[in-house]
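Long-time lurker. I teach an intro course on protein structure, and each term I like to show students one example going from raw sequence to a predicted 3D structure in token notation. This year I'd like something fresh instead of my usual example. Would anyone be willing to generate the tokens for the chain below so I can use it in lecture? Attribution to the forum is fine with me.
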Amino acid sequence: MNDTGTAGSPHPDGIQAAISDYIADLAYRDLDDVTRHAAIVRVIDTLGALLGGFFGEPALIGRELAAASPMPAGATIVGTRLKTAPDMAAFVNGTTSRYVELNDVYHWPGSSGGHPSDVLMPIFAVAETAHASGTDFIAAVVAGYEIYLRMSDAVKMKGFDCANFCCMGSAMGAGRLLKLSRSQLAEALSMAVVPNNALNQARTGHLTMWKAVAAGQSGRAGVFAAQLARAGMAGPTQPFEGEAGWCAHVGGKAISLGPLGGHGTPFKINDTLIKPRASCATTISSILAGETAGAAITDADLIERVTVEVYERAKIGMGTGAHHWNPDSRETADHSIPYVTAAAIIDHRISPASFDEAHLRSPKLRRLLEKIEVVTNDEFTHAYENHPVLHRTRVTVRLKSGETFVGESGGDKGDLSLPKSDQEISDKFRSLAEPVLGHRRADVALRSLWALDSVADVATLPGLLAFA
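-- Reply from a regular --
Happy to contribute to a lecture. Here you go:
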């Protein structure tokens, strides 16, 4: 087996070396109690999101493909008892957990943002096949998050998808569980970085199911890179800093990661945000404000005008372009401020069902969409561009009678950035798990997941979530 590889290159890559050295040295004992708990919370949250997205079309397609490639000693397609190759399980489970837009998100001034929990299901697949302990799995999750988020902070992506960070984080979390050597980790990172650079076209204009699949594809590529490294494959030299490397052509600049989590430096997993609603994070403040403004409105046809005041990034990304007023898919609807505001006013509380075909084709909702305008509020933009990030929005609904209703969100009025209690995490999981598992089984699964740090073998967990 080759154990020299790019780490022994005459032209070493500083970023590659810094990341692979960090992953090789990171131990569970290096994690503080707050970080350990944060990892458990995100495991519960992501598995809940997966159960909520189980019947989505891309999840169904993924399971059909996996069923054609069974592997009895492989990784489980969560929700079933089917096992397949770990990289295929990473693809299906990663796609499924992203489908309903309920997994965590990252908003940090100057960063590329993203959905760091995209690394979690790929790492889970490897943890199962490696028969890792709960503590080893937790450490791998923290490692995957750390690489994803430090890369997101280091470079503002232009034209490329944040799923690229998922590929790197998944490769490193998987590599740690596969007990790769320092140089093998370097090879895995190279084979994640050079061949797998997703374009942001997946999140531009009218969106398709690939919006969720991009996460699964990146996680699959990360796991496969780790498997290749374990088998002795050598990746390209200087994947980041080479003349034709990632920094020059994807990141667009030379980058520096700075200190990574541990030994007095906080772990970045603690900075990710748990979603209270099933929608793109940039639309959630509009949902919360819309729910408040629409609470007393019983007939949307009585509305004359709706004005949504948001921060600039929300206006540009989710409130500009004709497709946001005419969504033709769930994926476009949950990235549309006009749509989510209309649905919040009509439904009074957004749920995954707010994006089903009946809602997408609802004449009443379509009529309301025509009455919605989205505008930038400079004060809200300032609040968003500082730390702690505040997602402030004001929805003003004017009825034909002249009566006006106003709803606000952000800060103490309800904010995506507010920490969630363990009870809120449990309630969210139960709301997604009980419809498929039933109350008793959902409760058993939840108790086991909260005790993840005492689980001897992660392979015992998928069975608790099987229902199909």
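Some talking points for your students: The chain has two domains: 5-271, 281-413. Strands lie at 70-76, 83-84, 303-310, 372-376, 393-399, 404-409.
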